[in-house]
Amino acid sequence: MPMQLLDGKFLSAQIKQEIAAEVAQIREQGGKIPHLVAILVGTLGRSETYVASKMKSCEEVGMKSTLIRFDDTVTEEELLNAVRDVNNNPDMDGLIVQLPLPDHISADKVMETIHPAKDVDGFHPINIGRMAKGLPAYISATPQGILEMLKRYDIKTAGKHCVVVGRSQIVGLPMAILMQRNTYPGNCTVTITHSRTQNLPDICRSADILIAALGRPEFITADMVKDGAVVIDVGLERVPDATKKSGFALKGDVKFDEVAPRTSYITPVPGGVGLMTICSLMQNTVKAARGEVYTGF
Ligand code: NAP
What we know:
By secondary structure, the chain is an alpha/beta fold.
């Protein structure tokens, strides 16, 4: 079977249209316009770019968005109070706090302070636990975007061996939990790997579905991929590139040029998973505004 691109650009444009239509309908019916709030601490270039594109996407689909900024000298308590203010503001439906945070602030504490019903990034332990149990929950935006991709390309997952490289709380771990659930996409036999894993190339080679989320540019090479595998590249790193105006190029965890010909489906970087992540956030915020995930809060 010839290789097919899992085209995040195409899918995200499609999903944005769907969200825009939904928001327009809410507006027509005089309903609550979904409102996403982002908190950004410091001026890290990458975080600025991510948050700006999240805010811009909300605007494009007619949603409301608010950016709350702090210097990186903000105290943990000040930040927690800002989170509590959003929790208590009925006009604000979803809240994301852009990571990473400065070392003096506990990201876990911040995530646990976000009300689970507004945690559209799906990082709160209650959302992770509910997701693991298969209860209604906000699912971490990147893994949710990957599920959406698998669904929209009708990729068979039941009974397949899915190898997830990386066990981070925001990508690898939830991805592995989701792929083993008794639903579609899911029902995979899942192996989760990390920096202490032995024989990683052998394990990767046994994957029908390989999800790379380790943050090591071009780490996955052709010899680590089985013929016909589905390869999802979550990695997104800046590497110096003198030929680019910006001075850097965006690279994934997969050496695309040599891996792609072996695969049945593969995501490009950029233009793959990253664009889906933003869509998940907006979809979750619409659900939050509609009160669809949590009732009774
Ligand atoms: P992270 O928190 O740094 O976690 C990386 C994981 O990879 C860890 O579990 C680590 O193992 C594992 N790892 C590192 N080196 C390895 C190696 N040589 N062999 C096997 N496993 C190894 O990273 P993250 O936040 O999950 O992000 C991963 C990548 O995805 C980054 O490039 C990030 O920019 C990108 N990302 C993209 C999106 C998107 O929307 N496209 C969203 C989120 C993240 P240990 O646990 O043993 O340290």
